[in-house]
Automatic annotation (TrEMBL):
Belongs to the ATP-dependent AMP-binding enzyme family. It holds the Pfam family AMP-binding. It catalyses: a medium-chain fatty acid + ATP + CoA = a medium-chain fatty acyl-CoA + AMP + diphosphate; octanoate + ATP + CoA = octanoyl-CoA + AMP + diphosphate. Residues 108-503 form the AMP-dependent synthetase/ligase domain. It comes from Ursus maritimus (Polar bear). The keyword Transport does not apply. This is Medium-chain acyl-CoA ligase ACSF2, mitochondrial.
Length: 598
């Protein structure tokens, strides 16, 4: 479609009056290179109408975060939220303000300059308490140190271990240098670790000697028996040929470098100068993090995320939480979720970094008692967690003895949360500003989220509404067309948040992200006329009985209404051969139900 001297006009019929749209407006909605592939008349109509039909419900902070008032940006609240159009399950988030074109390092620099003396990181178990200025200084030294030992832009460095100060340090130091952080599940054993490191070609691995029963160094020796006799930084492994550099975070170990020594080396002027030179060539579109999917179906895949992905997602999460309107003492986030997972590294570390909030790591791995202690002693105002984590916190025997008066809100995500649990969290934890978030690792991760002003019912019965700069559609799995409102279908996502791809797996990437840039989540969802989305199950878990589709989440929600039911999970067995009574369900490190156990 080409504009002539006399602009063409497309008229779309609305219930109350016709709407005239100039061709130039249509063109602005779709980039030139993508227009021909998915700019169907119906979709154009839906896209245009979604910009017109809005609801005066909650005020969304849609602009860049507190520290990122770009030219033309604003911290004023919008009072509009896009609604689905024409009775179909398609919605587009607000795009009033520009996305941020900054690297993680540039964001840290900006926040350290803006609030240098505000606490950035608190790790009680390690006696760590750093301001943003101090954190920036330590990150720069660590980044310079990584360059000094031969790592550089594009190399992959794995971080393998529980939540800790070194984890945050490596997350930010790698981003400063263009090194790609590989988030390794701290529960991985030898076979899983070997697969992950080989899959992405890790050149370096940072780890503790051990944590509880997990003997990290001994597991490494199973894969790399050459380690004990290797020169530090010069490992030659037959099974992992790319891996040359092992860095221990706590103990001197044969064949490894010590993290403290690497950081100390980075404090030298020549290495800091090299860091500044390297940073000139970094782009916000460079990959910054590889996160492995859970692998519940097949082998784990390495979802590759860019600076652009995670900087903007964390900024928009913080805006939806209204962090830019909070007083400094209200910006204290307690994080019991694992950092190797997106909820921790993006929703936690990155949200705090961009919005100038204090990140409080409650414990190395989830511990409900430690979470309550952190809330009480550190005056935590926001709390993150999965449903199972919140259940554990609420059921602590001495729950009533902790001071939770500073708590006001937080995020629950990671798996479906039953309505009764949402109500219990809001009431018992005093978290009136609790929001439910939905996302996937491949989407950086959050794409739907409540507003704090949503009613308890809206929080309990949905995962909120579309995030800014994001599109969502629900597709009828039989016909491949847009599903009508309140009709289940597969949820598709498109926008800045979609990953770069699965590392080294172009075919699987193409199977998941179409040429039209829509990412297929595999989740079954329903959207109502206000744009609230509810996840009702996974497409692979859907049950067909008597021609009717039955979704496990609907049954689980029903069971949760019984006062004697604490947790419930629908099994895939028709008639189980064995019945085992257990106190707790088996969980993954990220707090999700472990469905992979035999």
């Amino acid at each position: 479609m080409v504009a002539s001297a006399q602009p063409q006009v497309q008229t779309l019929d609305l219930p109350d009056k016709p709407l005239s749209i100039k061709v130039g407006v249509v063109q602005s909605l779709f980039p030139q290179e993508e227009r021909s592939s998915y700019c169907s008349p119906d979709l154009v109509n839906h896209r245009l109408l979604s910009l017109v039909h809005t609801s005066p419900f909650p005020k969304e902070m849609d602009g860049p975060g507190w520290g990122f008032r770009e030219p033309g940006g604003s911290r004023e609240a919008d009072n509009t939220v896009p609604l689905p159009i024409g009775g179909l399950s398609y919605v587009q988030g607000l795009t009033k303000h520009s996305l941020i074109h900054k690297t993680v390092g540039q964001c840290l620099e900006a926040t350290a300059q803006r609030v240098p003396d505000r606490e950035a990181l608190v790790v009680p178990q390690e006696n760590i308490r750093l301001t943003f200025a101090q954190l920036k200084e330590e990150v720069d030294k660590a980044a310079s140190g990584l360059l000094s030992i031969g790592l550089g832009k594009g190399d992959r460095l794995g971080m393998w271990g529980p939540n800790s100060y070194p984890w945050v340090l490596m997350q930010l130091a790698t981003a400063q240098t263009g090194i790609i952080l590989v988030s390794v599940n701290p529960a991985y054993q030898a076979m899983e670790l070997e697969y992950a490191l080989k899959k992405v070609g890790c050149k370096a691995l940072v780890f503790p000697k051990q944590f509880k029963s997990q003997q990290y160094y001994n597991i490494l020796k199973q894969i790399c028996p050459e380690l004990e006799k290797a020169q530090p930084g010069a490992l030659k492994s037959q099974r992992l040929p790319d891996l040359t550099t092992l860095i221990s975070v706590d103990h001197p170990l044969p064949g490894t470098l010590l993290l403290d020594e690497v950081v100390a080396t980075g404090s030298k002027k020549q290495h800091l100068a090299r860091l500044r030179y390297t940073q000139q060539f970094l782009s916000c579109h460079d990959p910054v993090n590889i996160q492995f999917t859970s692998g519940t179906t097949g082998s784990p895949k390495g979802a590759t995320l860019s600076h652009y992905n995670i900087v903007n997602n964390s900024n928009l999460i913080g805006n939806r939480l209204r962090l830019c309107l909070k007083m400094p003492e209200e910006l204290r986030m307690v994080l019991p979720s694992p950092l190797y997972h997106c909820l921790g590294s993006v929703g936690g570390t990155m949200v705090c970094l961009i919005h100038g909030a204090t990140l409080i790591l409650a414990s190395p791995t989830f511990d409900g008692k430690k979470a309550l202690e952190a809330i009480s002693k550190e005056r935590g105002s926001f709390l993150y967690g999965t449903p199972t984590m919140f259940v554990d916190i609420l059921n602590q025997p001495d729950f009533s003895s902790y001071d939770i008066s500073a708590l006001r809100g937080g995020v629950i995500a990671g798996s479906p949360a039953p309505p009764e649990l949402i109500r219990a969290i809001i009431d018992k934890l005093n978290m009136k500003e609790l929001v439910v978030a939905y996302g996937t690792t491949e989407n950086s991760p959050v794409t739907f989220m409540n507003f704090s002003e949503d009613t308890v019912e809206q929080k309990a019965e949905s995962v909120g509404r579309i995030m800014s700069h994001t599109e969502a559609q629900i597709v009828n799995m039989k016909t491949g067309t847009l599903a009508e409102l309140n009709t289940p279908g597969e949820l598709y996502i498109r926008g800045y948040c979609v990953m770069l791809g699965y590392w080294g797996e172009p075919q699987k990437t193409e199977e998941t992200i179409g040429q039209d840039k829509w990412y297929r989540t595999g989740d079954i969802a329903v959207m109502d006329d206000q744009g609230f989305c509810k996840i009702v199950g996974r497409s692979k878990d859907m049950i067909i009985r008597g021609g009717e589709n039955i979704y496990p989440a609907e049954l689980e929600d029903f069971f949760h209404t019984h006062p004697q039911v604490q947790e419930v999970q629908i099994s895939h067995f028709k008639i189980p051969r064995y019945v085992v009574f257990v106190t707790n369900y088996p969980l993954t490190v990220s707090g999700k139900m472990n469905l992979g156990l035999p």
